Amino acid sequence: MHVAFTPSANAEPVSSATDRQERVLAERDGIVVSVVSYRLPLAADAPPHPSDCDRTGFLRYRPADGPANSRDAEHVVVQEQGLGGGATNSDSVATNTVRSAMRLGHNIEFWALARRSQCLDETTGFDFALRSGNYLDAVDYYFNGKEIDGRKFPGFRQSSNLQVLDWMGLDRVVRDQYELMLAEIPDQAVRQRKFVCTGISLGGLVTGLFADWDFDGNPATQDDAGFNQCAAFAAQDSMVSSDPAAIQNTPFFRDVTNVITGGANDVLKAGFRADVMPRIFGPVPVTGTKAFLILRLAGLAAHLAPDAESQLLQHLPRDLDIDLTLNTLFAPTWAAFATNGADGSGTIRDFRFTNTALLGTLIDNNSTNFSLLQQGVGALAGGPVQDKSFPNPGEATQIPVLGGYLRISAGPQRRVAPTDHHALYTWRNYDDVAGVPYTAPNHEVADIRDVARQLAAGSPYAYWETYFPLRVVVDIGAAYGGARSGDMSNLRYAGMSRTKPNLAVFGGDSSVQNTAGALFPPPMLAQVQTMPGYNHIDTIGAAAVQNNGALDYSGQYLAEFVAGL
Predict the structure, then answer these.
(1) Residue 304: which H helix or E strand, with range?
(2) 3-state secondary structure 69-125
(3) pLDDT digits over 170-206, tens only?
(4) How crowded is the C-beta side of 484, counted as CA atoms within 13 Å?
(5) Which domains does the chain have, with CATH numbers?
(6) Distance separating alpha carbons of residues 215 and 158, to the nearest angstrom
(7) What is the DSSP-derived secondary structure letter of residue 364?
(8) What is the residue-wise DSSP string for 326-360?
């Protein structure tokens, strides 16, 4: 396949997005945070859906004393979110990047993109609780039939009631990004000079596919090609590629995989439309609908009443989804997990926590048993603890070779659980862990107060999507497997992101660099940085100032990279 490296001389593409709206949400430390949205309707054959689903947008972070118009910024960082992550996921790295750039003497913006599926987020309970100041208003609205403004929660949507997600696959995600970039900065030459395209986790994969997408479907034009919208690319604990196995380099494999994988993708797509394939994680523990909502509610409680004894768990019903999620995240041993605490250890509901301590227990790298949710936000206090061995002790990750893969399950750190059913467990924040025997200041990098505030967000965009479309994951799998027909027919190019400057930043305590990063390394000329003590989410969620006095490495490295373009 012959690919030219410069835009054609054809007429400029014109965005289909209309009715731009922008609303300021906050100003923090000289940085304005606003929500920007455009009307960009779904296809005419889409099933009935809320009107919000015909809009798409992003959270915009910019210096308060900088340019008011994005086209006047020196650079604009555009970030795709990870699996299930809402736009608010990137609040810390967005703020830290803009602030670090300001210290370097540069005015840049950061856009945290919202996937179209965020139009289905459950926010009514959060919005009301943030006004009332009582987190139980939200808990009881979602789980106990409480009315808010005369309205009862209608219940969690099932896969069969979410047909509109079939119209929110990979093509919709990358096209929304393109349309927003085009609408905000219509001049292609300016876009290619100013935009820095990034992604965290799954968002890095999406960014790689964006780079190689042909948005007008015409191989004779390239002003619209994804790689011609970006000055550079960055991967945050991820990779930017549309073809990591280099299938497109060999015509035989390219043609065979397209037939096989493209056909399989068509079958799976039909499965979604026929309600045979689940559209969402749904009742899956830990990453399902209720699981992510519980994490958001724990953040809401820690935000509104950080030091009060938590009543959240008492207000949650006992059902299989909830109990299995809590058991998976909390169980100290295999026996405790198998018996749901009946071995004498008890469940998480049998202990007393402040709201901040409960949140920390559910997400901290020394507490929770699921590595992809872990952040270094501090340590338990107020009572005795015991070491955890479920699903494996953190020390097992020191085993050569195998240990790198064991990180995927529960992370590399020593984890502990409370043991006293009478003590009220409290929390020590990330900058107050000196002397704690099972952690160290250089492995605690995120401020739990920031995390709580972000998790507490209601409208316009939640921290975790309520109904993340699995169609996106299936489409990415098809694209990586070589599908270039059907929905993937506009994936025309291969490896074009590698023709631009690249930055790859990895969490030192994450499993990504030692697993996927080793199998599919960054481009040879890429700048590669490893952030010590950072977990996967810490890559975009770290505190502005670290325990050694340094600025958040993720924001600083990205700001330096942008400043050097």
Answers:
(1) helix 289-304
(2) CHHHCCEEEEEECCCCECHHHHHHHHHHHHHHHHHCCCCEEEEEECCHHHHHCCCHH
(3) 999 999 999 999 999 999 999 999 999 999 999 999 9
(4) 20
(5) 18-115+168-242+490-563 (3.40.50.1820), 289-456 (no CATH)
(6) 32
(7) B
(8) HHHHH-SSHHHHHHTTTTTT--GGGSEEBHHHHHH
Identity at 447, one-letter amino acid code: D
Q: What pLDDT, on a 0 to 100 scale, did the predictor assign at position 394?
A: 74
- CA dist 113 and 80 (Å) reads 6
pLDDT tens digits, 43-67: 999 999 999 999 999 999 999 999 9
Q: What angle do CA 152, 350, 454 make, to 5 degrees?
A: 50
From CA 527, how far away is CA 196, in angstroms rounded?
14
Rounded Cα–Cα distance for residues 388 and 375 (Å): 17
Angle at the Cα of 443 from the Cα atoms of 394 and 535, rounded to 5 degrees:
70
To 10 degrees, what angle do helices 448-455 and 289-304 make? Answer: 120
pLDDT tens for each residue of 503-521: 999 999 998 988 888 788 8
First to last CA, the chain: 29
Distance CA 506, CA 534 (A): 8
Torsion angles phi and psi, residue 451, rounded to 5 = -60, -45
CA distance 134 to 137: 6
* Structural tokens at position 130: 């943030």
- Is pTM, for the whole model, over 0.90? yes
Task: Name the residue type at position 476.
Answer: I
Cα(483)–Cα(486) distance, integer angstroms: 8
